[in-house]
Amino acid sequence: MRVLNADELKIEKDAIIGSIIDGAIFVYPTDTIYGIGCNALISKSVKNIRQLKGRAANPFSVIAPSIDWIKENCLIAEEAEEWLDKLPGPYTLILKIKNSKCVAKDVNPGLSTLGVRIPRHWISKIVADAEIPVVTTSVNRSGQNYMTSLEDLDSAVKKGVDFIIYEGSKEGKPSKIVNLTGAVEVIGR
Q1: Cβ neighbours for 102, distance < 8 A, ≥ 6 positions apart
Q2: Which of 153, 115, 160 is nearest to 136 (CA)?
Q3: Please, which residues have CB within 8 angstroms of residue 55's CB and are 6 or more apart in sequence?
Q4: Chain centroid to CA 59: how far?
Q5: What are the helix (H) ranges across 104-182?
Q6: Using CA atoms, how far apart are residues 62 and 173, in angstroms rounded to an integer?
Q7: pLDDT tens readout for residues 145-157
Q8: Considering the entire predicted model, what is its pTM?
Q9: How far is CA 44 from CA 2, 63, 126, 168, in A?
Q10: pLDDT tens digits along 116-145
């Protein structure tokens, strides 16, 4: 398992993007906290993250490669349009799915909804360049504190990660969840 900084990532960008597309499990910074993710189209990788987190069934969200990807794959009601305009930003939008094949079924088992976000952070450019959705969930075992620095990364999670993109300690909070599947509901964090 490697720890890369932003400069190393720039140098190895094509190889890193290739490994993400191929199913690598990795830790990355966002505009809020660190996330753990993988190519959201590869069931095996998604299942591995579930195992690392000890999270059997709760749905995962994804970093979308673009607003266009969200519009192609999710139903956008009129009230959702204003929230899409807030992306990139610290929001996870819960939308109804239009294309059930846009992510592996293990991302959101048994649901017809998907949480999507585009962080206001350079990691969004990496996802856009990969042209795939990437699972985004906090780096922690289920029910435990989320990672704010390398020192508090759970050892069991660390063992299952292919690489970490690290930019120092993060003091943010998880993104705000906005349920747009019916009446707009903002779930504060």
Answers
A1: 69, 72, 73, 74, 114, 133
A2: 115
A3: 137, 142
A4: 11
A5: 123-130, 155-159
A6: 17
A7: 888 899 989 888 9
A8: 0.93
A9: 21, 18, 22, 30
A10: 999 999 999 999 999 999 999 999 888 888
Across the chain, how many H-helices and E-strands are there? 7, 11
Looking up tokens 């300690």 gives 169
Q: Which of 58, 87, 65, 32 is nearest to 134 (CA)?
A: 65
Are 37 and 134 within 8 A, CB to CB? Answer: yes
Q: Could you give the 3-state DSSP secondary structure of residue 8?
A: helix
Between CA 4 and CA 12 the distance in angstroms is 10
Strands 34-37 and 113-117: unpaired
Residue 115: CA count within 13 A, CB half-sphere: 22
